[in-house]
Write a structure and sequence with these properties.
Jelly Rolls; four-stranded antiparallel β-sheet; 21 strands; 42% strand; Cu2_ascorb_mOase-like_C
Length: 360
């Protein structure tokens, strides 16, 4: 905990005068008061399920209701993707949380299936859609036939959550009004800004917004789909983290990949390797339960009815001022190449998002 701020009850001018006069003491009628920082929410103890907290918010928290009960479905109208403008506040934030909620439609008929979903931040919403730059804020998989609510930490990204932006919510659903397997979802997203000492990264470097990479094929191979990425760092920095989010999809292929086979993801930073295996063996412990379907089965990077926050890796020791290079490889858990010799119609793939956080 940092030392508390000391603020007078008088004006900032009187404060400056009192601080510059080394021999003076605050007048009795102008005592110093201690202004404590807001208590931080303990996201680490909420892992890996990140349920929405029930405690009331402190009145000093700034709330932005970005999406409220927005319908997403597929039918005569395709609402698998929705975009909405959002205005974020200016300020210094010691913590930023995102409260993300999925509810069933008004008639209660949730989608029957576990669908991949994503919430992205569009940095330049006035640009043509093809030229927009998007950073993924949240990856999630919908539950089977029920709602969910999760609360995740966006503090490193606070520097991007300012001014006029837009949100892009995507759910890979194929049901809608009148469908016999449910009618979709209602989506809400609320940002909660806790004022205090700024804790966000000084720089965010988006490398992959969100992409599906086919695995196990010779043409195209993973290398064909993921070229080396180059990025610049300032002359001085104290810490650099890579934030990688991956979820594997499709089954029935060789080794039941990529949903039901453990896979390893290697970040090669200036030729130094950092390996991540996001296998989830704990799906049966999900508090968003009971569900229908196979919600209890382990999966590659995700569980039905849960958020996937990804992995943050400290790569400071591998980077340097100026130009750096980063490669990403996707392998089997034992480090061997994956070859899909018995493909089904839906080829196995990994949905990838990657960004860097830089603290000066």
């Amino acid at each position: 905990m940092r030392a508390p701020l000391l603020l007078p009850l008088a004006t900032s001018t009187l404060l400056a005068t009192s601080l510059l006069t080394s021999c003076s003491q605050p007048a009795p009628e102008e005592p110093l008061i201690v202004v404590e920082e807001l208590p931080l929410y303990d996201f680490e103890s909420a892992a890996p399920w990140y349920p929405c907290p029930e405690a009331p918010l402190d009145e000093r928290v700034v709330v932005v209701e970005a999406l409220s009960g927005v319908d997403q479905y597929f039918g005569e109208e395709n609402r698998r993707s929705v975009r909405a403008p959002v205005t974020f506040p200016q300020g210094d934030w010691q913590q930023v949380g995102l409260r993300f909620e999925l509810e069933c439609p008004e008639n209660g008929l949730c989608d029957h299936w576990d669908r991949t979903g994503s919430l992205g931040l569009i940095l330049n919403p006035d640009a043509p859609e093809a030229d927009q730059h998007e950073v993924e804020l949240l990856r999630h998989i919908t539950p089977y036939r029920r709602g969910m609510c999760q609360y995740v930490d966006l503090t490193p990204l606070a520097g991007l959550l300012t001014g006029e932006r837009a949100l892009h919510s995507f759910i890979d659903t194929w049901v809608g009004p009148g469908h016999d397997q449910g009618e979709g979802w209602r989506v809400s997203a609320r940002f909660e800004f806790s004022p205090g000492y700024a804790e966000q990264a000084d720089q965010v470097i988006p490398l992959i917004g969100r992409r599906n990479i086919t695995v196990g094929e010779a043409d195209p191979s993973v290398d064909d789909q993921l070229e080396a990425m180059r990025f610049e760092l300032p002359e001085t920095f104290s810490r650099v983290e890579a934030h990688l989010t991956t979820t594997g999809h499709s089954f029935g292929n060789t080794l039941n990949c990529a949903e039901f086979c453990p896979m390893r993801h290697d970040l090669l930073v200036n030729a130094q390797s950092f390996s991540i295996n996001p296998w989830r063996a704990d799906c049966a412990q999900n508090p968003v339960s009971p569900q229908a379907g196979t919600w209890q089965y382990p999966r590659n990077g995700w569980c039905p009815g849960a958020v996937t926050v990804g992995d943050r890796v400290d790569i400071t020791a591998a980077v340097q001022p100026g130009e750096n290079q980063l490669d990403l490889d996707i392998l089997l858990a034992d480090g061997s190449e994956y070859t899909n010799t018995s493909p089904v119609d839906l080829l196995p793939s990994t949905a990838v998002a990657l960004k860097l956080y830089v603290w000066h």
